[in-house]
UniProtKB/TrEMBL annotation:
Example GO molecular function: peptidoglycan lytic transglycosylase activity
Keyword set includes Signal: yes
This protein's UniProt keywords: Signal
SUPFAM superfamilies on file: Lysozyme-like
Residue ranges annotated for the Transglycosylase SLT domain, each copy included: 35-229
Signal peptide: 1-25
Organism lineage: Bacteria, Pseudomonadati, Pseudomonadota, Alphaproteobacteria, Hyphomicrobiales
One annotated GO biological process: peptidoglycan catabolic process
UniProt-recorded name of the protein: Murein transglycosylase
Organism: Methylocystis parvus
Length: 264
């Protein structure tokens, strides 16, 4: 399967008549064996789109078998809602979230004033993603993203993520050696590179910047100040944009409501 786009038949005819061979996109693969060749091909394609710092960072990536294992084994998303919340420690997230809502009240007031997003869903996301910053992941982030861009399962989606990551390196916003989670997520609320590029407001290893960036993401995806965020309410769609797993979306809504004082 080829990445990017397939040339139209007309474009191929024109190229042939002109005596030029059509450009070949880097081909995805299903194992470590083809990664280095793919990386060379991808780097050639990337040179016209990203700077030398980004290309150099790409060339220093490695195939990450642990990332592939994690991508194939996301079993918790197939649990019942009750089982998922228990596995993720929902009650502990609620208790800690209520405490942080009080101790960081000034920050949350500022965020809600600017983006319209109340503390509950932000704290639910923060707690679910990293245990309020306790666990960020220790994978080489660029290698994780490059591995998934090479892997055929979701290569198109992660090709976009990889280009965003390389652009962030070019801009000096992402260190080539940055550590992240299994899919290359970065920071306290686990942003993928494209979301950092579009919605990041600072260093996402910093709690304040991560929470503001998360609120910015939700706001950009249609969050309406003062509206509800449970299933069927206006702001649930913004939560759905954060994560496509139904149990995750519903867990964020429930935990957020409990933190915001809306009952069980």
């Amino acid at each position: 399967m080829k990445r990017f786009f397939q040339a139209s038949a007309a474009a191929l005819i024109v190229a042939t008549l002109a005596g030029a061979a059509p450009a070949q996109a880097a081909r995805c693969g299903n194992g470590a064996g083809g990664f280095e060749a793919w990386k060379q091909e991808f780097a050639e394609e990337a040179r016209g789109r990203v700077g030398s710092a980004g290309v150099d960072a790409l060339m220093n990536t490695h195939y990450n078998a642990a990332t592939i294992g994690a991508d194939r084994g996301q079993k918790s998303f197939h649990l019942s809602l009750e089982g998922f919340m228990q596995k993720r420690g929902a009650s502990a997230i609620v208790a800690k979230g209520r405490q942080l809502k009080r101790s960081m009240a000034g920050l949350f007031q500022s965020i809600e004033s600017r983006y319209g997003v109340p503390p509950g869903p932000l704290l639910a996301i923060w707690g679910m993603e990293t245990g309020f910053g306790a666990v960020h992941g220790n994978q080489h982030a660029l290698s994780a993203v490059a591995t998934l861009a090479y892997d055929c399962r979701r290569s198109e989606y992660f090709t976009d993520q990889l280009y965003s990551a390389l652009e962030l390196v070019d801009q000096g916003r992402l260190s080539p050696g940055a550590r992240g989670s299994m899919h290359g997520e970065i920071g306290q609320t686990q942003f993928l590179p494209k979301n950092i590029l579009q919605y990041g407001t600072g260093n996402l290893d910093n709690a304040q910047a991560a929470l503001m960036s998360t609120a910015n993401f939700l706001h950009a995806h249609g969050w309406q100040a003062g509206a509800g965020y449970q299933p069927g309410e206006p702001n649930f769609a913004a939560i759905q944009a954060w994560n496509a797993a139904q149990v995750y979306e519903r867990a964020i809504a429930i935990i957020g409501r409990q933190i915001d004082g809306g009952g069980d």
